[in-house]
Structures are given as structure tokens and as C-alpha cells.
Model the fold of this input.
Amino acid sequence: MKVMMQSSSNKTLVGFTRRISLWLGVSVLLGGVAAVLLVLQLTVFAQIVADLAFRHHALEAEVPALGWLVILLVGRALLQWGADIVAAQGSLRLISKLRNELLQHLFHVGPVGMANYTTGETVTVLDAGLEGLEPYFAQYIPRAAMMVVLPFMILATVLHLDGWSFLILACTGPLIPVFMALVGYRAQAIMDRQWTQLLLLGSSFLDALQGMTSLRLFGRAKDAVAAVAGMADEYRCTTMSVMKVAFLTSAVLEFFASLSIALVAVVFGARLLEGKADFQSAFLVLLLAPEYFMPLRAFSASYHARQNATAAMAGISKLFALPAGVVDHTQQPMIEPLLSVNCENISAKYEENRPVLSRVNCTFNRGTVSLITGESGAGKTTLVRLLLGLLSPVAGRIVAKDVHGQIHTHWQSCIGWVPQRPCLIHGTVAENLRLANPQADVECLRNVARQADALSFIEALPQGFDTPIGERGVCLSGGQVQRLALARVLLRDPQVLILDEPTAHLDPETEQRVAAAIARVALDRIVIVIAHRGAIINHARQVLRVHKGQVFSGPHMLEHAA
Ligand SMILES: Nc1ncnc2c1ncn2[C@@H]1O[C@H](COP(=O)(O)OP(=O)(O)OP(=O)(O)O)[C@@H](O)[C@H]1O
Done:
């Protein structure tokens, strides 16, 4: 519990900032030294001007001072460059780590936990959301620190030079952060709205792209385009509001800064005329005054980075907060062959008071094709999700026994799964097959393709195993995709093979062959198939019918299945 609380408290802007505190510390340190050099540089410059203009020194006499001025100038530029680079490096590393962590976390959350998130929303968080944090770490944090360091350094110098100027700067400086906090309060609401609109725009755009065929066939393509355009326009308007606030903030900042510098100039100028102040001090104070406001201006310019990051962070935290429900399939594979998988009194539900499965008992044996059947919405996929470890049972347990009678609770890394719509990547046939086993040689690929009855169609493709199949296998038929997915899963040599409607898209002849192939691979495996009809039924030695939250088994269920 304590670990969980700690890990969730780390998933905040403050928590993330701590993780790169060393980088940010070095950046602020370099920036701080650059600030010291700036004060020294202006002091030397004021002295050179006073020497040349009022003390009538020859230019040659000022050469050493000019040399120092150049050294200070170059040193400051290098230090500032270093400070920026270090902050950017730390920030980019953190963003890249966070992206990996979030992706890994989403893999552990699994499709059931992600059911309420659209792909577009998730992609926007992973992309624009995480990118939105970069300026916060690279600019906002160092500038916030410099807003404290440089003005205090300048105030200390000015106090040493002139009490009145110190008073003016000390009184006007704090007005700026106060004003910005007031403006920021309103701006945050606009930023949040902008972020929500970006999420909506991302998911609507992706939905429109994915549903392009259906939208065209329903004659709704124009409406979809208009809807996306409308959202884009709303997003534009909100972005303009954000910019308005930003311009307004800078305008007020400039006003305050100019007013206060003018006040310093007038007060010091008057005393200079009266002979109560010396030129060098007056000139130095006037040089320092704009630099006093510079970090405040830079901070204000990056203030929207904080607001943007706060808005993006809401989406990022939500994803990080999703409970990891999926079994870790990267665990060590089992060595002993499995004999059976037993569901013992398992119950499952997605929502409170809506149980999908109640106290289900069933066994799946090695060397047997077990058929799961039942009406739509009965809970077949839910049972398979429990077996796959994508959903945790609310009661009961699933255990596997090996051939020596030993019970295993962590056995899910031995499962192979072929869903109804297998996921194929944009690549060649061989690349898609090797997702299951990157080391597999061509002979292995041919072997599994033969077992899945896919070899003949693959060899008939223009470049055989090297033929690109397009995103999601668009260049293949539904039946070919199914067989390719079966071949791919066999490449992992799974001890338990689960297939969802594997013969749904096949012609009767191919269906017979694929069903026979499944029966063959079941000889030394536990094979579980969701199917309602077709040739696979003839190969099933066990039929389980899911009905009203219960699972009924027995040979008579074949009649229901058929
Ligand atoms: N992620 C989810 N969140 C909430 N309810 C869900 C979720 N997935 C499924 N359900 C509900 O659980 C019940 C069982 O669904 P399940 O997908 O297991 O049925 P099924 O037998 O596989 O149906 P089909 O044959 O149509 O695929 C259904 O009432 C469904 O609405």
C-alpha cells in the first residue's frame, strides 16, 4: 500500500522534477554563475564608460578592462549555453523514460482496463501530452530558479550603490509574480479547455480515418469531415484565447518593468544633476535595472509552459493511475509440459452488481480441442480474458497442472492467442511471423506456415515471405490473415493455444483444412476454441456452453453448438 502511494505520488510534476533534480541543479548552478558574470560585466562596462567619458582616461589604459569585458561576455554566453543544454538534455531524457514507462504500464493495464480510452486519446497523451512537459522542465523550472537568483543578486548590488533605487526595484519586482498568479488562475482554465479539445480532436480524427469506409458507405463522410473541422476551429479559437492572455501578460509586465526603470532613471537623474550621486553608480544602476526584470520576463514567457504541462499532466496521471490488471507474460516460460488448466469457482464482472460469470468450474486438457460456445454476450470472451490473464477473477482461481501433477499459478506465459481480428503490422509476411520469435529462420517460418495451411498462399505471393502485406494486413483476405496469425502463434510453440473464431472467414474447403491443422497441433497442447459452428466442431472432444453466467459441459452440448 505504501509502495503504491509512493509510486502514485511520484507521478506528478513535482515527482518528475525530482527525478532530474541533478540535471536541473547543474543547469541552475551554471545559470547562477552566468548571472554573477553578468553583474561583473555590467560593473566593468560602467567603469570603462565612466573612465573614458568623465575621467578622461586614454583608450589604451582601458585595454585590460576591455579584455576582462570580452572574457566575461564570452564566459557568460558559454555558461548560459551550457545551462540551457543541460536542462534540455535532462528534460528530453526524462520525457523519453516517461514515454517508455507509460507504454509499459499500458501493456500491464491491458485492453480491458483501457476499454474507456479511445486510441486517439491515448496517442495524444503519449505524443503531445508528454512533449508538452518538455518546456516545463527545460525552461520553466530553470527560469523559475533564475527568477530568484539574479534579481536578488542585482538587488544586493543596487543596495550597495543606491538606497532609493533599491527601494523602487524591491517594491515593483514582487508585483509581477503577484499579477502573474492572478492572470495564471484564469489562464489555467483556458489551458485545460485547450487540452480537452486537443484530446477530442485527436480521437475524432482517428475515428474518422478508421471508419472511412463505413462513413462513405453511409454517406456520412462530409458530416465527419465537418465535425473534425468544427473541432479544429474550436481548438483554434481556444489557442487564440491562450495567446491573448499571453500577450496581455507580457504587455503588463513590460509596462511595470518600463515604469520602474523610468522611475529609477528619474530619481537617480535628479540627484545626479544636483551632484548628490556619481555617474558610474547611476549608469550601473540603469544597466542593472532592465536585467533585474529580465528573469521575470523570461519566467513569464515560460509560464504558459507550466500551465500547458499541468493540463497535459491530468491526462498522463489518469493513464498512470489505471490499475495494472494484466498478468506479466514476460515471466520465465514453464519447462514442464502442462497437463490441464482448471478454472475453480471463478467469477468475473466488469461493473458492480453485473456479474458476467458466477462460480464457474471447468477443465481444459492436453491433447484435446475444447470448444467454448454460447449466445452473443454470454461471456465467452470474458472466460478467455480470464484464462489469458487480461482480467482478474473476482473470486476463485485458475491453476495449471503439469504432467507430474505439480500445480502452477504462473503459467500464462505459455499461452498463444489468436483473436478474431489478429493484429498485423506494416511489414512483410516474414516480419509479421517473426513478431512471435525474432530468431526464427526461414525453415521454421515455412514449417509453421505449413502447419497453419498458409504455406501455399504465402508462396503464391509476388515475393513470398518477403511480400509487404500493408497495415493491418490490408493486402490479404480475412482467411489469409487468420491463417497467418495461426502460423505466427505456432512459432512460439505455446503449450496452451486459444483461438477466437479461427475459421469464421474461410471457405468450406479451407475451413476443413484449418480445423484439421488445429486438431493436429492439439495432440501435444491444450487447445481452446471459441466457435459457434463449422468444421472445428467435429474435432472438439469437449464442448463448454456459456449461458447466463454459468458454464455447462458435456457431449450433449454439441447439439447446442451445432
Ligand atoms: N470491457 C467491458 N466493460 C463492461 N462490460 C463488458 C466489457 N466487455 C464485455 N462486457 C459485457 O460482458 C458481457 C459478456 O461479454 P463477452 O464479450 O464475454 O460476450 P461473448 O459471449 O464473448 O459475446 P460475443 O459472442 O458477441 O463476442 C456482455 O454483457 C458485455 O456487454
Q: What stands out?
A: Residues 112, 115, 350-351, 356, 374, 376-382 surround adenosine-5'-triphosphate (CB under 6 Å). The radius of gyration is 34 Å. The longest strand covers residues 338-351. The beta strands are 338-351, 354-365, 368-373, 395-402, 407-408, 415-418, 496-500, 526-530, 542-547, 550-553.
